Amino acid sequence: MGRHPWRQGASVSGWVAGAAILWMAGCSNKPGPMPGQIDVATLAPVLGGKVVKAGDEEEVLVGQNDEQRFLAVRALVRLAPDRVALVLRGQRVYDNDGQWQRADGHAEGGELDVVYLQWDGRRWQRQQHHAAALMLGSFGEFGKIETLQPAPDQQAVIVHSGGTWQGHSVDVATMVLLDGRKPEAVLDLMFASDNGGACTGNMWCWSATSSWRLVPGKSPKEWASFVVSQKLDEHYEPGDGTEADDEGDAPMDGEDVANAEEAASAAAAAAAAAASASASAASAPAPQPAPKPVPPAKPAAPPDRHKAIELVYRWNGHHYVLKSGHNIVPGV
User: Fold this and answer.
1) 275 pLDDT higher than 70
2) Where is average pLDDT lowest: 13-22, 128-137, 178-187?
3) Residue 143: phi, psi to the nearest 5?
4) Rounded to 5 degrees, what are φ and ψ at 151?
5) How far apart are the first and last CA of the chain?
6) Which stretches of the chain are DSSP H helices?
7) How buried is 61 (Cβ within 10 angstroms: 0-12 exposed, 13-18 middle, 19+ buried)?
8) pTM, to two decimals
């Protein structure tokens, strides 16, 4: 035994205690399955940003100076047991005297980002971030997102976008593959529209809708066909036969007053002459009133019109292309 046996004992005890701590730490931080969702607080440092309260939701602020953007999660798509794709809505923002100003005008679309994350058992690792790949929608936003699997090893999303302009509404469906590459539209489709807010009379009112489904290919490796069913309903809205006068009577200036007085004097003289002529003709037999003209009958409104059609799109190796049918959804 050495010169300081108590030190030997102390070092062994310390080593045992340290080993126990490491063992417990390893148990508490052991790898776990990939979470089914990711919150903003967890996502912000992964994207190199910070959490900010923006309106009704928390978003991630990324960028610097004049290139700052808000990012909000719109969809999480599971690609593998340890890999996901996030679809984010981005908006450019500016610091206006301490207040965030969004680029969300009527003609401003929402920026579509796609982020690929890997789960290492304990935390998320960012693999790729395709920023502002597409601009879709209006008022800085796009609509709902649908997921689909057109091929056994391929996931995709359909992003709905559009807006309303002067009573006309439109919904455009854009398909984007989640294949790791820069996102692009492999299909753009006029999906729905109506003119309900602008159909005021003497015109056709319409409402068009669509639904979609995948039809599997003949072989397991063949991409599915994308089949769209569309309906268009139209009815004629008759007018009331009158024209509204929204402007009213304008006030008269000095020249208008003089002209009105002169016209009143001439009218009085004409009335006196008419009274004299009426008195001289009082003994004559009274003329018979002319029959009132019968107004023409209003034409009957044309019958409602209904159309239905099926469109078939097939994969050509790069995009979905139309093979049969034609789109009956009116544009705006």
Assistant:
1) no
2) 13-22
3) -95, -150
4) -140, 160
5) 94
6) 5-28, 40-46, 254-280
7) middle
8) 0.74
